[in-house]
Amino acid sequence: MKKLLSLLLALLLAGCTVQSKEHPVISATPTQTPEVPIPLETPEPPKNAGLLNESDPVEESYFDDVVFIGDSRFSGLIDYNLLTNATILAAVSLSVNELGTKKVISGTEGNITVLEALKPLQCKAIYICFGINELGYAYPEIFIERYSAAIDQIREIQPDVPIIVSTLFHISQRKEAKNDEYLNNRRIDEFNTLIRDMAAEKELYLLEIGPAVEDENGYLKTEYTEDGVHLDQEGFQHWIDYLKTHTLEGTLC
To answer: Where are the alpha helices (DSSP H) in the chain?
Structure first.
């Protein structure tokens, strides 16, 4: 009996071995599903960016709580007693890297810097324009780096206030004819490109001011300037009229 059982067990084992050879067992590995690219979400347009488009004109009271920061191209508003309801933090020869160091704004206890004057203000918009005094920089990249740093300082002080950065309008044809190495429209175009790029990168509003004061050839109109670089009173009035029809409200509608 034991021999019979042993024989049957041997035959059974032999059959399993044969079966194993005919049908080898293959250890299965999980099938890898090809990676399917995840579609990228389209980012929403920045909430604080864009070109100021033409819109219905606003009243001058619109600028009651608006701040203008800049150099002599803004300080002319003070000289001609224009937009007196706005806050003008501007001075002749002011450079973009001097907002926190040069004391050019009259305060209650003497002169203070632009950034010091900006701190206590409650405003709904800040217009800023620099570049005409920086055209002589050896490297334009230095200008835009300093401009970008100034924007960061302003945002730190007024984090919730929209910032409108203005391009530079050209100089007059007569001024251009003097062939100055730096004060020329080619150089202004170069700086304007940097300003536009910065506005896009830092999500700022952009004011293209050229159409307000330039002729069909892109020169500052002679009837709007006395020195070919700055606006006279008539030029400023056209500039203000242009601002009234290019507002944040018009852009956001």
So the answer is: 2-22, 72-79, 114-118, 140-157, 173-176, 185-201, 210-213, 233-244, 248-252
Return the CATH number of 58-65+124-252, one of 2.40.50.140, 3.30.1060.10, 3.40.50.1110, 1.10.260.40.
Answer: 3.40.50.1110
Domain boundaries, the chain: 58-65+124-252
If one counts every other C-beta atom within 10 angstroms of the C-beta of residue 53, the result is 13
pLDDT, tens digit only, all 253 positions of the chain: 444 444 444 444 444 433 333 333 323 333 444 443 333 333 343 444 699 999 999 999 999 999 999 999 999 999 999 999 999 999 999 999 999 999 999 988 899 999 999 999 999 999 999 999 999 999 999 999 999 999 999 999 999 999 999 999 999 999 999 999 999 999 999 999 999 999 999 999 999 999 999 999 999 999 999 999 999 999 999 999 999 999 998 665 4
